Amino acid sequence: MEHKEIDKKVEPSSQYVRLFFFISGIIATIAYRIIFLLDSFWIEVAWYVGTIGFALYFGHRAVIENRKAKLVEDYQLIKEVQESNLGQEQRSALLYLVKTSLTSKARFNSAFIFIASVVVLIANLAIDLYGLLMS
Question: pTM to 2 decimals?
Answer without folding.
Answer: 0.87
